[in-house]
Amino acid sequence: MTNRLFIIGAVIVAALYVLFSSIYVVNEREQAIVLRFGQITNVRSEPGLYFKIPTDIVDSVQIIEDRLMRYDISDMTVQVSGGAFYEVDAFLTYKIVDPRLFRQRALGQLSVVEDRIATRFDAALRQVYGLREFNAALSEQRSQMMTEARDLIRPDMAELGIEVVDVRILRTDLAREVSERTFERMRAERLAEAALLRARGQEQAQSLRAIADRQAVEIVAAATRDAEIIRGTGDAERNRLYAAAYGQDPEFFEFYRSMESYRTALGNSGTTMILSPDSAFFRYFGSDGEIPAASTTFAAPIAPQAAPITSTEPTEPALDGLGIEETVAPTMTLEDGSELQPTVGTEAPAPAEETAPAPAQ
């Protein structure tokens, strides 16, 4: 009985082994290569449940990826036309489209494929960057560069049954030494531009300052000229009035000039003068202070009469803020007790009456 149960159990185990070894499942993310004695007999790319000869001695199945896969490259140093260097980060996406070639050329190993991708991707990026100038890699040509790199890689990868779907450049930065040189060059350009603007500003400031100085000189010269003209006109008018006044009585004019000379020369200046009593300077000194006889041809001086100043009565009473409407004219008390009242107009006072000269003693 025991042997019979053992045999039945062995048969069941063998049947289960045969059943499970003849079944394989392919899901939607995979492909299956069926091998018979190492030779490809079939490729399953559709998901489902499939059967093969039991055990792996005759038929074997290799599962491969049917998804998009990604390969990254980072901190890659490339040289552009002109000798500058960039540091580049990029990646590409690929897919196994021909499982037979993938098995035959790459032994069905992704590591072999990625080694080939690394070599070809590096060479393609260097070639694409090497054909361009320094600024082109940072311009709108980036999309064209990615397309060119993808087209360069595709033929070699197609031989392995791999399709390169896309190439993307993530980062393009200047190398450190190039970045420092670029910064220094940009700094020098900005400093030169600032110096140019400052020089232009100083030039304009000097020009404006020169114009202002010239205008100031012209204004001062014109003002000085007008002042001299006005002063000369005033002096001429003064001399004319003096001449008209003194010309009426030359003898009185000589007497007045002598009195002024006495006041100036004999003042408290501490100066000692030794002159003859008969000199012309003492002509009126011994006259006992008498004024010479008046000229018989005396006439009033001819001078322009100023228009009298007239006051107009206000139509409305003026208020000083305290309710007082009358306005009192100001007065001044002199030393002798008399009051000086304000005068109206500029009328000349009546001439003094002529007096007979006193007899000489």
From TrEMBL:
Residues 346-361 have a biased composition (Low complexity). It is a single-pass membrane protein. The chain crosses the membrane at residues 6-26. It comes from the Bacteria. Its main location: membrane. Keywords: Hydrolase, Membrane, Protease, Transmembrane, Transmembrane helix. It is found in: Membrane. Residues 21-186 form the Band domain. GO terms for molecular function: peptidase activity. One of its GO terms (biological process) is proteolysis. Residues 331-361 are annotated as: Disordered. Belongs to the band 7/mec-2 family. HflC subfamily. This is Protease modulator HflC.
